[in-house]
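Lab notebook, bench 4. Continuing the backlog of folding jobs that were queued last week. Each job is logged with the same field layout so the records can be merged later without manual cleanup. Today's entry covers 4-diphosphocytidyl-2-C-methyl-D-erythritol kinase, a 292-residue chain. Filled in by technician R.K.

JOB TYPE: sequence-to-structure
TARGET: 4-diphosphocytidyl-2-C-methyl-D-erythritol kinase
LENGTH: 292
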Amino acid sequence: MRISVKAPAKINLTLDVLAKRPDGYHEVEMVMTTVDLADRVDLTLREDGLITLDCSASFVPDDIRNHAYKAATLLKERYQVSQGVHVYIDKQIPVAAGLAGGSSDAAATLRGLNQLWGLQLTQDELAELGAQIGSDVPFCIYGGTALATGRGEKIEHLGAPAACWVILAKPPVGVSTADVYGQLRAAEIETHPPTGQMLRAISEQNFSLMCKSLGNVLETVTLDMQPQVRQIKDLMIASGADGVLMSGSGPTVFALVQKEAKVHRIYNALRGFVKDVFVVRMLGTQDGEMLA
Ligand code: ATP
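JOB STATUS: finished
OUTPUT FIELD FOLLOWS
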């Protein structure tokens, strides 16, 4: 038996760091939304009880270092499942890009194995398990749009934002989330994103207020490490983007636009500059779809 599960990327509409906690994690406040750039995770039942994994991107680890492998192992051990699984990841989301590709693969593996192994766990139970793999995994279990707090694992569901186009551009460098957080001095952050205003923009489906409320406190850290991030942001703004922000710890930058003519202009400007450019929609908007 084999099932295929979609593992969509996320973007941060806001990312705020409130404090560094004694356990080493940062206390965050983030508005996140899923977009329709997705990996495909194929899960094939193995009667011999083994867990094996292959990924279309050869540089992604295929052992316990892979978040999807971790997810399968955790679920098998916790619920003493005798069956195994072969996981195949068709990688479409750029790696180490601030788009939560690995976390989304883990979440898709948990959702898919819940079906394949007949575990009948609730989404909340899967999210709780996912939090042991990574802070972004619980959000990826639900998808849609949400406010994430704590270390990112506490999820409050939000309504659908105003529909728009999202143009993603990733410079040809990877960024380690741990390095970026490591260089952040939480107590010295001068400008925090207006999270409350973003929540209002979403509930009112107010596109221009959403664009005005974008903010990410990690941007300055990554901009120092990767100057190309600023160049991409500047290019997007000069090409008429309504809102521009770096996602997560970067280096992917996204532009929000409503008019299709602007999409073409921004896409063409970026294509001369970076290879990885994607035009996507947010999932869970009026004309998007929700995760199954
Ligand atoms: P986040 O936004 O959650 O910080 P990211 O998008 O910045 O994540 P990922 O693409 O998840 O980063 O990759 C981060 C690291 O995780 C990579 O260095 C990679 O080797 C490792 N990794 C483990 N499992 C996966 C996976 N299934 N897909 C991609 N990377 C993975």
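OBSERVATION: Residues 60-61, 65-68, 89, 95-103, 105, 136, 177, 248-249 surround adenosine-5'-triphosphate (CB under 6 Å).
SIGNED: R.K.
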